[in-house]
Specification:
Layout (H helix, E strand, L loop, with lengths): L1 H24 L4 E12 L3 E13 L6 E4 L8 E10 L4 E10 L2 E16 L5 E7 L21 E6 L2 E2 L2 H19 L1
Antiparallel strand pairs: 1-2, 1-8, 2-3, 3-4, 4-5, 5-6, 6-7, 7-9
Length: about 180
């Protein structure tokens, strides 16, 4: 019985992590999240930041990240988002950035995802932008538009793991209990 319990716990943990990664990188699932967009100049450092909310659905539906605060007096939007799993625990993303009257500015990111259990024992994801070119500044410099040469970062607040994963886990434990009674 102990072996069965350990085996079930291991399977459930693996499913949680797989479901989290799958939902994030687009194999399946949709995610709503919020966080902060920040910009950094390689010469002067911090430029500014703005809060955002986003919706990513990699089943083919439109995905976008919207500002909830203005950035230098203007709202912004990121759209046409694609994410690729690099296979080494990091992910590469390309998207288009609209700010003020400037539209379709190409933006690239290298980021990682951390999975953890929070104080309420809920699984969550934390997405962090990494230094993509080794210049010591997180993000990759934009190659065109009004912020050319400036790196942009997106960092999310923890994103809860879908309830379906937890529901599956509780059902698995119920089946174990039922099997033990037999």
């Amino acid at each position: 019985m102990k072996k069965l319990l350990v085996c079930c716990l291991y399977i459930m943990l693996q499913m949680n992590i797989s479901a989290v990664k799958a939902g994030t990188v687009g194999i399946t699932g949709a995610w709503e999240f919020n966080g902060y967009m920040s910009m950094y100049d390689p010469s002067f450092g911090y430029v500014g930041s703005s809060a955002f909310t986003g919706y990513l659905d990699f089943s083919g539906a439109a995905s976008e990240i919207n500002s909830t605060e203005t950035f230098f007096g203007e709202s912004w939007l990121m759209h046409d988002i694609s994410i690729t799993d690099n296979g080494d625990g990091t992910y590469y993303s390309q998207m288009l950035f609209d700010w003020s009257d400037q539209i379709n500015i190409p933006v690239e990111f290298l980021f990682d995802i951390e999975y953890f259990i929070d104080e309420n024992e809920m699984g969550a994801l934390l997405v962090r932008t990494l230094d993509g070119n080794g210049d010591g500044i997180r993000g990759l410099p934009m190659t065109s538009g009004p912020f050319e040469g400036i790196s942009i970062t997106l960092d999310t607040n923890p994103v809860p793991v879908p309830a379906a994963v937890w529901l599956f886990g509780s059902g698995l434990f119920s089946l174990m209990g039922f099997a033990r009674r037999r």
